[in-house]
Structures
1.
Amino acid sequence: QQPVQSPQAVILREGEDAVINCSSSKALYSVHWYRQKHGEAPVFLMILLKGGEQKGHEKISASFNEKKQQSSLYLTASQLSYSGTYFCGTEKGGSYIPTFGRGTSLIVHP
Amino acid sequence: KAGVTQTPRYLIKTRGQQVTLSCSPISGHRSVSWYQQTPGQGLQFLFEYFSETQRNKGNFPGRFSGRQFSNSRSEMNVSTLELGDSALYLCASSLGQGDGEQFFGPGTRLTVL
């Protein structure tokens, strides 16, 4: 079953923050986050494993709440380069068979 | 280090035909995963190969198949093409487990007429 991402779209100005959520109705083993720019391939951002720590680099970080079966991606002080569609991919564990959300479109204006 | 390459980049076929897509992973990467991306269904996992063995498979009909060679290069085959198979087909490679950091290729845009 496909995870649900919210919001579907976000429009920001440079320097503003955003949070993108990814929720599943089933228990999760891991959550992956990707960013895809128009006409380009997805770029892996990070993976969060059950029982693992919150991850992040520079101004993009993510958390994984196992009890709520939800992950959140935090983008702070957004830059123009952050524009794109963000996908979460979830796995139930046992084997690598990911299911992806429909994506969140993020637009950062100057 | 060269990235993941996919050939061809664009392909036009007619219903009923078959097609083979190729993916060359990053040197040293042993896992190759294939995905289908469409506006209607989004990104969907097809299968993953590791050391020439299909390790995991998504929910696609048997018309979709693949293989991996000893040099980790992978091919994906779709037989008896349907209009709904029109999509961007992406492959991604990773060092070992398919659930690690993945590097995507540019994709093959398949159009079925």
Note: Chain B is about 0% helix and 55% strand.
2.
Amino acid sequence: GQNIDQPTEMTATEGAIVQINCTYQTSGFNGLFWYQQHAGEAPTFLSYNVLDGLEEKGRFSSFLSRSKGYSYLLLKELQMKDSASYLCAVQIGTASKLTFGTGTRLQVTL
Amino acid sequence: GAVVSQHPSRVICKSGTSVKIECRSLDFQATTMFWYRQFPKKSLMLMATSNEGSKATYEQGVEKDKFLINHASLTLSTLTVTSAHPEDSSFYICSARDPVPDTQYFGPGTRLTVL
């Protein structure tokens, strides 16, 4: 079966850097997505990794190691508005289906 | 990113009635759309894959006769919750697949409450 693990909760200070890890054990891996979701809202797309390495997009970066089944999302210069859930999702097979991890609730404090 | 709309955003209905939720891709054509369900403080659970012009593919444990999916055009998929019961109350979210690059864009979600 598919297994995707993320920490349940994290807390970080405004202005700091936080790394949210995601490990996965899946078959038919095609890529990995990170989404941000505020309470009561739909997820918004943050990043997509299909090859090993780091993808940087502004304050957010995402890393993938396919051989290790590991990814992380790095958030720099944290802002209060970054308080949200961060969902790791693995794209499996040719049907482009996404399997989501449990999500990490990030709380940014002053 | 691409824009996906959902309607209605909120619906309250009586037990036993049916509710239709629409999902539209506004600025691209989506041959594939997905329907998810999310319980409070839980992650998204894929219910079914909606394919334009063909039958939907349901995930294991999802009743296809209860959750009817129709993908009549390249920009519209509908989910009908038939004979709704209180346990069907949930946040339903659709996504539309943009093949280039292969990305899913999510609608704003529909909060269904069955009394």
Note: Chain A touches chain B through 23 residues (CB under 8 Å).
